[in-house]
Amino acid sequence: MFFDATSFEPVEVLPGLTRRYLGHGKRILGVEFVIAPGVAIPAHSHPYEQAGYLVQGKGKMRIGDEWRDVQTGASYVIAEDVEHEFIAEEPTTVIDFFSPPREDYQP
Questions:
Q1: What pTM did the predictor assign?
Q2: Which of 12, 75, 85, 104, by CA, is between 20 and 30 Å from 91?
């Protein structure tokens, strides 16, 4: 199955944070997040396993009790129901995958 991500409009999640749907299958969904400098994605958890890759940018990320400075090339996996958050220090683009697919992120 192929998707053209440019055909999906970005959704503003909060000021300075957009999410673009990339596609999904039976057990996985991909999204792109574009985050402006200084924007904080507040601490949250969800019942989805999440894996991500920083395409560009830099920031601070917390998964569970561990904080890390992350930058272009960093990748991560977050188990379901584990609290996490992110603070962008420069313009940042992240590709995240969720399993099972998040219905609230599908167009």
A1: 0.94
A2: 104
Is the backbone peptide bond immediately before 100 cis, with ω within 30 degrees of 0? yes
For residues 57 and 3, give the distance between their C-alpha atoms in angstroms, rounded to a whole number.
Answer: 25
pLDDT tens-place string over residues 9-43: 999 999 999 999 999 999 999 999 999 999 999 99
Contact 8, 21 (CB under 8 A): yes
Query: Percentage of the chain with pLDDT > 90?
Result: 98
Query: How many beta carbons lie within 10 A of that of residue 25, not counting itself?
Result: 11
**φ, ψ of residue 5 in degrees (nearest 5):** -60, -30
CA distance 71 to 39: 15
Q: Which residues 6+ apart lie within 8 Å of 59 measured at CB?
A: 35, 69, 70, 71, 86, 87, 88, 89, 90, 92
> Cα 63 vs. chain centroid, distance in angstroms?
13
Tell me what pLDDT residue 90 has: 98
75 Cα distance to chain centroid: 11
